[in-house]
Amino acid sequence: MSIAVRPPTLKDHSVREFDMLIDGQWVAGEGGRTLERVAPSHGVVASRYHIAARKDVEAAIAAARRAFDTGPWPRMRGAERAEVLNRTADLIEKHADEIAFLDAFEAGKPITQVRGEIAGAVDIWRYAAALARDLHGESYNTLGEGTLGVVLREPIGVVSIITPWNFPFLIVSQKLPFALAAGCTCVVKPSELTSGSTLLLGRLLIEAGLPAGAVNIVAGTGAEVGALMTGHADVDMVSFTGSTGVGRLTMKNAADTLKKVSLELGGKNPQIVFPDANLEEFADAAVFGAFFNAGECCNAGSRLILHKSIAPEALERIRALSQRVRVGDPLDPSTQVGAIITPEHLAKVSAYVADAKAGGAAVALGGETLDLGAGQFMAPTILDRVTPDMAVAREEVFGPVLSVLTFETMDEAIAIANSVDYGLSASVWSASMDTCVKVARSVRAGTIWTNTFMDGASELPFGGYGQSGLGRELGRHAVEDYTETKTLNMHLGPRTGWWVPRE
Ligand code: NAD
After folding, report:
1. Which of 430, 341, 417 is nearest to 378 (CA)?
2. How many H-runs (helices) and E-runs (strands) does the chain carry?
3. Distances (CA, A) of 310 to 305, 344, 391, 475
C-alpha cells in the first residue's frame, strides 16, 4: 500500500515544566511528585507536570468553594465576567503557537488541525462571553394581583471539570467558559497525557484578570485526582468528557452527594448513504470522518452503512482518497493524520482489526502499524464486509479504522444505525430531502448531519443519546446547564389567611 508518510523529525526541543494553579498560586504540590509525558510521535519526554496529592485536590476544592461562597466572581455583573472571558479569548489568540505546539506534541495531533481547534476555542470563549450578559430567568405577571412570580437563574456553585486527551484545549473550552459565564467557580483536571495546554490556559486566565480561586487546575491521574473531584461533598456539579466506562464510574461516585452530572462520552457514529447521494462529496466526508484526529474522536464516522447498489463504487472512491492521506509527524504542517496516543492504545486498536479479520471482515486498505522511526502510528484502515454483530461495528475503536456495512431498505439502515449502545452523532446522504428528514427523525443521536459530516458551530448544542452521555454542551443552553433555578414567589398586598379566613 502506498501511504504519504511524514517521518518525525525534531530540530530543537526542551521539556516543558508545569506547576499547578491553586487559589491563584502556582504550586508544586504536596510531596513534589511529577509525571512525565512522552510525545507519542517522537518518543522523547515532551512535558513534566507536578501532580496533585489528596491534600492538593482538597486545597483546590476549598479555594473554589471560598471563591464561590465569598469571592467576587459570582457576584459580578455579567458584563464584567464577559470582559474577562473576552480578554482570555484575546490571550488565547496571542499564545496560539504555544498552545498548538503543546497539543500537537503531547497528543500527536497534526499541528495545522490544532490551529483550527484553537480558532474554534476562541470563538467559543467569545460566544460564552456574550451569553454571560444574556443569562436571565423568567417572570410571571399572570398570577393575579397578589403575586409576582420570578424565576431566577443562579450559578450552581463549584464545578469539577474533567477532560480527555483527544482534544485537550478544545474540550476544556467547551466547558470552562460557560461555567464561568454563569458565575461558577471550578476545579479543572486535564488528562494526565495532555495537561500542558490546560495549565497554560490557567496563566492566561490570571493575566485576563480572573480572581484567585475562581479556576484551579490540578494535574494527575483519574483514579487518584479525578475520583476525589467527583465525590467531594463541596463540589456541586461534575462536567466530564471521556470514555463511557469512566463516565459511568463518575456518575456512581457523584451519586452519594447527589451532584448534578454532565457527561460527554463515546460514540459509534454511522454515515448512511442512499443510492441518490453525491458520492464524490460523500467519499471526502467519509475519509475525513474516519481518519480526522487519527480516528481518536468521539464523533468519528467509524461506521459506513452503504446501500448495496452503490457500495462497490463508494468503497473504491474512499479507498483511493484514503491512500492519499498524509500520515506522520504532527509538527509537519502538511500532515493530516498524526500518532496514536500510547503504545497500549495502538495495541488495542490493532486487536480490533485482528478480531474483525478473524470474524470474516476483509481489509480493503491498511490494517497495519507503521514504523516511522519513532513514536507509534497506524495506517488508515478500511474494513469491508463488516456485519452489525462484530465488535468493530458496535464498540468505539478510537483509531483510524473504518467499518463498511451495507443495507437494502431504509428501515434496515435505521435499525443498523440504532443497534448500538451509543447515540452521539450520525449522518445521512441523499439528494432527497424526504429521505434525509425521515432518517434524521428516526436515528437516535444528539447530532444528525445531512449531506455533510462533523460540521459544528458554537451556537449548536452537542451531546449524546443513550450511553454517549447526559446533557448538552455549546449553544445558548450551555450556560443554563451550570445554573440552579430558584423560584421567587412575591406576595403583594394583604395576605389571605388560612386558619382564620379574612374578609
Ligand atoms: P478516559 O475516560 O480514560 O479519561 C477521561 C478523563 O477522566 C481523564 O482526565 C482521566 O484522567 C479521567 N479519569 C479516569 N478515571 C477516572 C476516575 N475513576 N474518576 C474520575 N476521572 C477519571 O477517556 P480518554 O481515554 O482520556 O478519552 C477518550 C474518550 O473520551 C473516548 O471514549 C471518547 O469518545 C471520549 N470523548 C467524548 C467526547 C464527547 O464530547 N462526547 C469528546 C471527546 C472524547
Report:
1. 341
2. 15, 27
3. 11, 37, 25, 37
- For residue 469, what are the contacts with CB-CB under 8 A and spacing of at least 6? 247, 262, 263, 264, 265, 424, 446, 463
Specify which residues 154 forms β-bridges with.
484
242 C-alpha vs ligand 1 centroid, how far in Å?
2
pLDDT at 501 (0 to 100) = 65
pLDDT of res. 502: 62
Q: Which of 482, 478, 429, 47 is nearest to 235 (CA)?
A: 482
Q: Quickly tell me which residue has 393575579 as its cell.
A: 144
Secondary structure class of 490 (helix, strand, coil): strand
Active-site position among 296, 298, 436, 480: 298
Q: How far is the CA of 229 from the centre of ligand 1 (A)?
A: 14
CA atoms lying within 13 Å on the CB side of residue 10? 18
The 425-429 sheet, strands edge to edge: 362-365, 381-384, 401-407, 303-307, 270-273, 425-429, 447-450
Q: What does the DSSP assignment read for 238-264?
A: EEEES-HHHHHHHHHHHHTTT-EEEEE
Kindly report, residue by residue over 64-74, the tens digit of the pLDDT: 999 999 999 99
* Greatest distance between any 2 Cα atoms in the chain: 92
Long-range contacts of 417-421 (CB under 8 A, 24+ apart): 417/270, 417/272, 417/303, 417/305, 417/443, 417/445, 418/442, 418/443, 418/444, 419/388, 419/394, 420/268, 420/393, 420/394, 421/244, 421/268, 421/394, 421/466, 421/467
Ligand 1 center from residue 162 Cα (angstroms): 8
- Give the residue whose CA is nearest to atom 12 of ligand 1: 222
Query: Is the pLDDT confidence value at 2 over 60?
Result: no
Give the number of residues written for the chain. 503
> What's the sign of the alpha-carbon dihedral 474, 475, 477, 483?
positive
**298, 396, 472: which to mutate for ligand 1, most atoms within 8 A of CB?**
298
Q: Please answer whether residues 180 and 76 qualify as being in contact, where contact means their C-beta atoms are separated by less than 8 angstroms.
A: no
H-only helix segments in 163-258? 168-182, 196-207, 227-231, 244-255
Pairing of strands 45-50, 34-38: antiparallel
Tell me what pLDDT residue 188 has: 98
Global pTM? 0.96
Residue 500 pLDDT: 66
Helix (H, G, I), strand (E, B) or coil at 275: coil
* Substitution candidate for ligand 1 out of 163, 166, 194 with most atoms within 8 A of CB: 166
Residue whose grid cell is 388560612: 498
